Amino acid sequence: MRAAVLHEIGQDKLDVLDDVEATGFGPGRVRIRVRATGLCHSDLSAMAGVLPQPGPFVPGHEGAGEIVEVGEGVAHLKPGDRVVVCWLPACGTCPACKRGQTQLCLAGFLNAGTPNFKRPTGDVFGFAGTGTFAEEVVVDAGCAVPIPDDVPFDIAALIGCGVTTGLGAALNTADVEAGSSVAVIGCGGVGISAIQGARLKGAAEIVAVDPVVSRREAALKFGATKAISPEELADTKQSVTAGEGFDYVFEVVGRSATARTAYEATRRGGTLVVVGAGALDDFLQLSMFELFFDEKRILPSMYGGGDVLRSYERTIALWRAGRIDLAGLITHRVPLADINEALDQMRTGVALRTCIEI
C-alpha cells in the first residue's frame, strides 16, 4: 500500500512509499479506502513539531473514501458506504459529551498515541489518529461518518476539518450578530470558511487580512467586503469602525503575535475568536488591567466549537442549497505521488486547499 511518510519531526519533505500497511483492524474498527484528502495547515504544523505528534507518521486528517471492511460489532456501516473521516470522534459517555460539548471529547486524541500503520522497519503513526495521506486507513468506527451519495469525495474531505472548523467558529463559537463588523486574520481554507460563516450570519462588514495577494482576491469572492494586507489593518480599523475596533475578530493563524494583533483590533466589549492551532510554548501576553478594563471576550474555537455530526449535516445542507461554496476552495489538485508539490503550495500561500487524489 502507498502512503506518504514523514520519517522524523522537522523534515520538510514526505517520502511516498509502497511498503506501508494499515494495521489495527478488529472489533469496532473499519478499513477505509481513501479517495480524496485535503492538505490542512495543521499537517505542516505537526511535521514541523509545532503540534505534538509522535513519529514517524503519515500526515493527513481531512479525508473521505469508501468502507472496505467492518469489524465485529459495527452495525451502522457496511462495505461500499461512502464516509468522511472524523479525526475527533465523540465517545458519547465522557463528561464533555454528556454536557453536549462533543468537540472537547478526548477519545480521538487517545487514538493519536497508537500506531495505525507499519513498515518492515517498524511502526508508523497516523496524524491525529488517522493519517489520510495513504491509500487505506484503519480507524475506530466512530471516525467514519456516512455521507450522502451526492456529496463528492473532494467536497466531503474538506468538511472533515477545514470547512467545519471555519464555519463553526462563526456560526457556533462567535454566533456572529447580523449587521456587525468582522475581521478575519489568515485567509486560507479555514479563514475563508469563517468568512462564509460571517456572511451567512449577516455581518455588514467582513475584512479579510492576509499577506498573500491571491488569498485576498479569493476572500472577496467568498463574501469579504474588503481585503487588506496585515500592514493595512490599523488604517482599516480606523476607516471601517471609526477607530473603535471590530465587533468580531477571528485569528486563524495560530501565533501569539497574530492573536495579540487580533486582540488590539477588537473593540472594547467585542469578541476575539482564536481558531488557529498554535504551539505549546507560544504564549499570548495580556495584562490583567486590559482584561478587566476592555471586557473583550476571548473565545477559543476547537473544531468549530459544536457537535461535529450536526456540523457536518448543516454544512452539507448549506452546500446543497448553494449558500456556501466548497468547490471553489479547492484551488489545486495533485496525485499522492506529488504530495510535496502540495506542501509547497500550502507554504507559499498560493493554495486555499489542495486536494490530494488517491
Kindly name the structural category: alpha/beta
Please state the overall shape, judged from the principal axes of the Cα atoms.
Answer: globular
Mean pLDDT: 95
Terminal-residue CA separation: 11 Å
Number of helices: 12
Please give the share of residues in helix.
Answer: 25-40%
Quick structural summary:
With 358 residues, the chain is α/β, with parallel strands linked by helices. It has helices at residues 41-48, 95-98, 107-111, 153-159, 162-174, 189-200, 213-221, 233-241, 256-265, 288-294, 308-320, 339-348; strands spanning 3-5, 15-17, 21-22, 29-38, 57-58, 62-70, 82-85, 117-119, 122-126, 136-140, 144-146, 181-185, 205-209, 226-228, 246-251, 266-274, 297-300, 330-335, 353-357.
Descriptive overview:
By secondary structure, this protein is of the alpha/beta class. 30% of the residues lie in helices and 26% in strands. The protein contains twelve helices and 19 strands. Strands 4, 6, 7, 10, 11, 18 and 19 form a seven-stranded mixed β-sheet that branches. The chain has a six-stranded parallel β-sheet with strand order 14-13-12-15-16-17, sandwiched between helices. Strands 3-8-9-5 form a four-stranded mixed β-sheet, with no helix packed on it. Strand 8 (117-119) and strand 9 form a beta hairpin. Helix 5 runs parallel beside helix 6 (189-200) and helix 5 (162-174) crosses helix 11 (308-320). The longest helix has 13 residues, at 162-174. The protein is globular.
